UniProtKB/TrEMBL annotation:
Protein's cellular compartments: Membrane
Keyword Cell membrane: no
Keywords: Membrane, Transmembrane, Transmembrane helix, Transport
Alphabetized Pfam families for the sequence: STAS (PF01740), Sulfate_transp (PF00916)
Origin superkingdom: Eukaryota
Protein name: Solute carrier family 26 member 6
GO molecular function terms listed in the Swiss-Prot or TrEMBL record: secondary active sulfate transmembrane transporter activity
Length: 772
């Protein structure tokens, strides 16, 4: 026992000694600041910090530089496999990647067949889409753990395009309405491959121009709500395979509801054998998944429930003859071997343009979201632009080999990580297994019931359906995100993919709404009057911090968001309201009184009741009210006051006029609010805290200038504080600073501005008691 405690005691003593040393260093560390009467305004800060304009480097110039190092860097950037494959540790990683690749391939087989059916294509094309894109991503991708291939959301979006451009009704033969399946499938394969090529072109093009940031406009609540809505469409689209029904094609905003009603109406016509097959397969899949969760710690790899279900269902179907005996629909002929490449049809590009862009963005959003999660968990970096290029090349080359658009699967990615996958070698191994199945083993699944594939799809929707619980968590955490979730879900539910209306419209509605919500939130910011926390130079909202006290005679105003054209007027109105002074009323009353004094002065001059000296003086000093109100106020009040004094004594009037002329202070007192009989503000300085400003536009500049002008008219000096460097540059570029507003009105911090305001008002050193 003593031996086991000795290292712990030594570690504790070492830790205490380090803690004590850090405490001593902390005590010795101190910051000295210039004396109290030294305040850092912007001019002083630029001089003290030796500010110089930042040198702007033109990125495009580096694009045309040619050197061996740059060529090598570009090669490693766009072909990442050359960077990490030479450093691959066979001893440490190969076994894990081998098991992981085998596990993913076992899942790829049933999911590829099922998701091809979901996309409205023959099942074998799901196997093609599980081979070509996966191998291409192995060469160009930067994520080590995501599993590229077929995915339910992508398949349902592809299926919506297939049903809208190649519906079953367009391939009916003769009077008995027999469906020409071969012609329909050939047309849909051509459409799907062309769509995949167009999706790939979009993704590669966006990646090459570094447009990976576009995914930032798809927030997590939006993506989760979108996939949840898509899961509802997936579920409804599989009902016809579960019950063995033939449904009519529909279109319109309520087509999803009509489809459910039609399923309910035709339930008496269902094939009982098909329904029983789907239920049994679904129960087996659920039980195997539950068993995997219970034994997760004890199993080296999950039990391949989907593969075992497919093998068992195929064997039973072949042995019993489910199609002949019970009318159960089966997959049918699966050709062995690979298909030759096929050129896309450019004539279809115009019809597929909008759908291709939506599929490209959604596929990339899902892939990059999962990629960043795994990268953060395992300590490496995923490059969004290169991910765009990798996914684009996967879809582009896959489309040439008759694949439909793909992304990454959440369930397979989790399996690839949990079974020991370390690199995309696991993906390459899974694609090789799929190749073996395509070449040799695919034809063995010809008797596989489609109801089993529908059960595989429905059971795998569990993760997306469980996202409905986001409503509860978002209600507690963030109501605005909940609103985005609900609007996205509702916008994508009414159209029914696979029945003529596309999901890209719902996605566009969701994105526009989320961006509009951001704009609306900037128009409802939190405005606050700040007070000083005692014994600190920290200023906080006096409404939230009861201990914060406003500095006497100083108002500090702050907005929680930047000010721009959409909220500049609201900022000005809230400022005047929070200051407790009706600025507009004071300005209008002051101008009205000064205008009356000017008219009265002119009337007195016309009646020749003023001495010639006073008339000459008033004539030489009269100024238009629109040019310089401050000077006019002083001079007109000077004349009016002189005229009142003249009524008492002409000699006194001349003497007083001569005495006031050189004294600006007395003149300003005469034109002040107090002399005019107007109420005065209870503060002499207004400080605008600009720390939340990230940019300014021309409307913001005009609003700030108007604030300076209006408050100076009511004898309140205005200063700005805590402005970031980019905003200062924008103020300079917008010619905000002039003779009346200089950088001396801009301070490094709110505390500096408060100290300067108090000293400037007192015309002497600041009393520290006032601000600390």
């Amino acid at each position: 026992m003593g031996l086991s405690e000795a290292p712990g005691e030594r570690d504790t003593q070492a830790l205490l000694s380090r803690t004590q040393a850090m405490e001593l260093r902390r005590r010795d560390y101190h910051v000295e600041r210039p004396p109290l009467n030294f305040f850092l305004n912007q001019e002083q800060l630029e001089e003290l910090g030796s500010r110089s304009p930042a040198q702007v480097t033109l990125q495009w110039r580096t694009w045309f530089r040619c050197s061996r190092a740059r060529a090598q860097a570009l090669l490693l950037q766009y072909l990442p496999v050359l960077a990490w494959l030479p450093q691959y540790s066979v001893r440490d990683w190969l076994l894990g990647d081998l098991l992981s690749g085998l596990s993913v391939a076992i899942m790829q087989l049933p999911q590829g067949l099922a998701y091809a059916l979901l996309a409205g294509l023959p099942p074998v094309f799901g196997l093609y889409s599980s081979f070509y894109p996966v191998f291409v991503y192995f060469l160009f991708g930067t994520s080590r753990h995501i599993s590229v291939g077929t995915f339910a959301v992508m398949s349902v979006m592809v299926g919506s395009v297939m049903e809208s451009l190649a519906p079953d009704d367009a391939f009916l033969l003769g009077l008995n309405s027999t469906l020409d399946v071969a012609a329909r499938d050939a047309t849909r394969v051509q459409l799907a491959s062309t769509l995949s090529v167009l999706v790939g072109l979009f993704q590669v093009g966006l990646g090459m121009v570094h447009f990976g940031f576009v995914v930032t406009y798809l927030s997590e609540p939006l993506v989760r709500a979108y996939t949840t809505a898509a899961s509802v469409h997936v579920f409804v689209s599989q009902l016809k395979y579960v019950f063995g029904l033939h449904l009519s094609s529909r279109s319109g905003p309520l087509s999803l509801i009509y489809t459910v009603l039609e399923v309910c109406w035709k339930l008496p016509q269902m094939v009982v054998g098909t329904m029983v097959t789907a239920i049994v397969a679904g129960v087996v899949l659920v039980l195997v998944k539950l068993l995997n969760e219970k034994l997760r710690r004890h199993l080296p790899m999950p039990l391949p429930g989907e593969l075992l279900t497919l093998i068992g269902a195929t064997g039973i179907s072949y042995g019993v003859g489910l199609k002949q005996a019970f009318g159960v629909d089966i997959v049918g002929k699966i050709p062995a071997g690979l298909v030759p490449p096929m050129a896309p049809r450019p004539q279809l590009f115009a019809k597929l343009l909008g759908n291709a862009f939506a599929i490209a963005v959604v596929g990339f959003a899902i892939a990059i979201s999962l990629g960043k999660i795994f990268a953060l968990r395992h300590g490496y970096r995923v490059y969004s632009n290169q991910e765009l290029v990798a996914l684009g090349l996967s879809n582009l080359l896959g489309g040439i080999f008759q694949c439909f658009p793909v992304s990454c699967s959440m369930s397979r990615s989790l399996v690839q990580e949990s079974t020991g996958g370390n690199t995309q070698v696991a993906g390459a191994i899974s694609s090789l297994f799929i190749l073996i199945i395509i070449v040799k083993l695919g034809e063995l699944f010809q008797d596989l019931p489609k109801a089993v594939l529908a059960a595989v799809v429905i059971v795998n929707l569990k993760g997306m359906v469980m996202q409905c619980t986001d409503v509860v968590s978002l209600w507690k955490a963030n109501r605005m995100d909940l609103l985005i979730w609900v609007v996205t879900f509702v916008a994508n539910i009414p159209p029914n993919p696979g029945l003529g209306v596309l999901l890209d419209l719902g996605l566009a509605v969701a994105v526009v709404f989320s961006l509009m919500l951001v704009v609306v939130r900037t128009q409802m910011p939190h405005y606050s009057v700040l007070g000083q926390v005692p014994d600190t130079d920290i200023y906080r909202d006096v409404a939230e911090y009861s201990g914060a006290r406003e500095v006497p005679g100083v108002k500090v105003f702050r907005s929680s968001v930047t000010v721009y054209f959409a909220n500049a007027e609201l900022y000005s109105d809230s400022l005047k309201q929070r200051c407790g002074v009706d600025v507009d009323y004071l300005l209008s009353q002051k101008k009205k009184l000064l205008r009356k004094q000017e008219l009265k002065l002119k009337q007195l001059q016309k009646e020749n009741k003023l001495p010639k000296q006073a008339a000459a003086a008033s004539k030489g000093t009269s100024v238009s009210i629109n040019v310089n109100p401050t000077v006019m106020d002083i001079e007109s009040n000077n004349d009016v006051e002189g005229s009142k004094a003249r009524e008492a004594s002409a000699g006194t009037e001349l003497e007083d006029t001569g005495a006031w002329a050189p004294e600006d202070a007395k003149a300003s007192d005469i034109s002040s609010l107090k002399a005019l009989g107007l109420p005065q503000p209870d503060f002499h300085t207004l400080i605008l805290d600009l720390s939340s400003f990230s940019f300014v536009d021309t409307v913001c500049l005009k609003s700030l200038k108007n604030i300076f002008r209006d408050f100076r008219e009511i004898e309140v000096e205005v200063y700005m504080a805590a402005c970031h460097a980019p905003v200062i540059m924008q103020l300079e570029d917008g010619h905000f600073f002039d003779a009346s507003i200089t950088k001396q009105h801009l301070f490094a911090s709110v505390h500096d501005a408060v100290l300067f305001a108090l000293q400037h008002r007192r015309s002497g050193p600041v009393d520290p008691v006032l601000v600390s």
